[in-house]
Amino acid sequence: MPPLSSSSSSLAQPASEPPSAALASAVLVYDPSVEQVNTLLAGLDSGVAAWPVLPGNNPLEHIARALAFKHLKTLHILGHGAPGEVILGGQRLGASSFESLADALPSAGPAAFQIAFWSCKTGHGELGMNFVNTIANATGAHVFAASGLVGHEAKGGSWALDVQAAPSAPFSAEAREGFRQVLAINSLDSTVSAADIQTIFNDAAVADPVVLVDVYFTGMDALQLKVIAANMALV
């Protein structure tokens, strides 16, 4: 397969890309050799730009161009698959194929997005998990794939993507082990008592202590209470 160019200006623009495609929130990159693919395209959701990967095209260039869209929310990839791979334009793409996307992605790409692989068994087993994890870390996307067959239920398929991976935490194993906290907002139901609530209001110098605050403010966290108390102190 031709290597992915590091320059976005050299990426081959898909022939079907309309002028407004850069505003698309979803793009479908697909293999036109898939049987009955036109049936799926006829029912494609509105707002999804569909790009075929023709023989001789570099599929990663299509994918990189889609990921350069600032408004992209979902990149759909459709083709025949096997554990840890998908076929586009007659070319097999494995986990290592997608690692080059990290260097090709522009800094002004989408802030949060997902990639959905509509291909049989791409997420199956160890190869499948390595595939989705590699792509998640290379692109920053939340990645979905199927462990089984994708397609009509009469042939044992479904349209459920039951394997997923998000980007890994940007901290070393030692750092994660050394962090002895959890990143949760303290809830009144678990950690903030009625006395704690009274203390928050007293510390804020509220003129009249609030009566039954443990009932009135149930469900709020300590930070919310401090903001309320500070505002009351200004009255």
Tell me what the structure shows.
There is one protein chain. The protein is an alpha/beta fold and 235 residues long. It is 30% helix and 16% strand. The chain has 9 helices and 9 strands. It has helices at residues 37-42, 59-67, 95-99, 101-104, 125-139, 173-178, 194-203, 213-216, 222-233, and strands at 26-30, 48-52, 74-78, 81-82, 85-88, 91-94, 114-118, 142-145, 163-165. The strands form 2 sheets. A 6-stranded mixed sheet has the order 2-1-3-7-8-9, with helices on one face. Helix 7 (194-203) runs parallel beside helix 9 (222-233). The longest helix is centred in the middle third of the chain and has 15 residues, at 125-139. The chain starts with 25 loop residues before the first strand and ends with a helix. Residues 5-20, 186-190 and 210-216 have low confidence and may be disordered.
Kindly list the characteristics that best describe this protein.
3-stranded antiparallel sheet; 235 residues; 9 helices; 30% helix; alpha/beta; elongated
DSSP helix count?
9
Gross morphology: elongated
**Helices and strands: which structural class?**
alpha/beta
Low-confidence stretches: 5-20, 186-190, 210-216
* Head-to-tail CA distance between termini: 69 Å
Strand coverage percent: 15-25%
Task: Draw up the topology in text.
Elements: E1 26-30, H1 37-42, E2 48-52, H2 59-67, E3 74-78, E4 81-82, E5 85-88, E6 91-94, H3 95-99, H4 101-104, E7 114-118, H5 125-139, E8 142-145, E9 163-165, H6 173-178, H7 194-203, H8 213-216, H9 222-233
Parallel strand pairs: 1-2, 1-3, 3-7, 7-8
Antiparallel strand pairs: 4-5, 5-6, 8-9
Helix pairs in contact: 7-9
